[in-house]
User: What shape does this take?
Amino acid sequence: MSLRRVPAVLVVALLIASCTTQQPQPAPTASPMSTASPTPDPKALEKFGTQKLAWGACASFKDKAFDCAKLIVPLDYLKPDGETISIGVLRHKTKNTGRRIGSLVLNPGGPGGSGVSAAARIAMSRPAAALAERFDIVGFDPRGVGTSEPKLVCLTDAERDADRAEDSESDSTPAGIAKQLTDAKAYAAKCAERTKHGTELLANIGTRDVVRDLDVLRSALGDEKLTYLGFSYGTQIGTAYAEAYPDKVRALLLDGAVDPELDTAESLVTQMAGFQNTFAEFGKWCVARPDCALGRDAGAVTKAFQDLVQPLIADPVPAGNRELSFEDAITGTSAALYSQDAWKFLNDGFAELKRGSGKTLVALADNYYGREPDGRYTGILDVYFAVRCVDSARIADRRVIDDAHQRMLQGAPFLTGGTPDMSELDICSVWPVPATSEVHKPDVDGLPRPLIISTTDDPATPYASGVNLARDLKGALLTFEGAQHTVFLDGNECVDGAGLAYLIDGGLPAPDTRCS
Assistant: This one.
């Protein structure tokens, strides 16, 4: 999954308290896809777009600056008179009604990230003050997520804890690979059995249907055209919306873009190389410090890291009242690479591991998996797999899967022995419903020029992905020189100034603009 990265203040709180925040750390994303087929009947759907949202107090946010509502949408857009589901929506209404432009709808990424939580956080942030004066800032929880109903359910909290502790993905023997496939089948079956509407929801949970929900939301909000802000996987939603409804777009700002033409296997291979690149940047930063837990040789940090974590395969170490497994060490490390703000704490975690404790690395892994301090999981990983498995064509050839796994590890040697996304291809190969979209090159006419922001050393969505998306959508590219995942509204005056000018007035930065 790929989400807007956790702000520095939350990272600090996470590690000081050795617990998680509400916003999980990111991971790799899916590619944009076609939403052209099949096509619902517009007239039969008019009743959803004209619904009046019943705004009221938010259950999870007591601040009276927010109000919440439920958007009713068809479970299956080809059956508009059939079952319906609800989409959770949060709004921060602008007080400056005389200068109000409309609604700014946002998505933080995932798949599986909560737009409700993201909108509440962003609306109250200092960099977004100018947006809050001109827009109602709106976030929605996509199908199966957070406040939307029904919620996707695959594993219980205890089952997720047990799965993380098992380290099955580090076993590359034929027996180990066979067990991974068996586990993938069992996992997919649980998703269908434990979720209301079962396979029907799974068949209609992908980006194709999220985009349709987004257009219903636009209409219900009373906006003739959509102003949209998407981070990471949210750029996929924005791209698919632009393809489906180009004449209904006012402005489209996409930060941390995915490559629109890579299938699941190729996107994972590319992203793992991005993680290795950012790990190397972390290594350079680390060895310049006198307290670097991986030594003082930048060329040897991968080996030092492997020497430190490989013993966990056989011997997990204590982490409070839990244990740090090898897979959790890999996951926690990968999660911390999304933000330089977390690098100090990652180094502290490695030093802690040398002393025989895994508390900090477990906290980072918890953040990635959406595990809350009380042991409950948000379910973000389940939604991630469910969406990914219907957003591109299934890869069932074992040789292709094994080759992709091998190339992933060749491109990211620091992950040797396991990675948080190695199981994705296995799970999607046995998913109980077919794909509803396919990877392709976007072909959009009549779209106002979007703004694409891409970061040079982004671990999850490599810089070239933003370059490619800007080219395909005929948009403007803004380059940020740094090592992190997404940057808009993070306090960089150059990036924020350009983004605010675009969203408010439609002005685009000059060609080849770079911020650092």
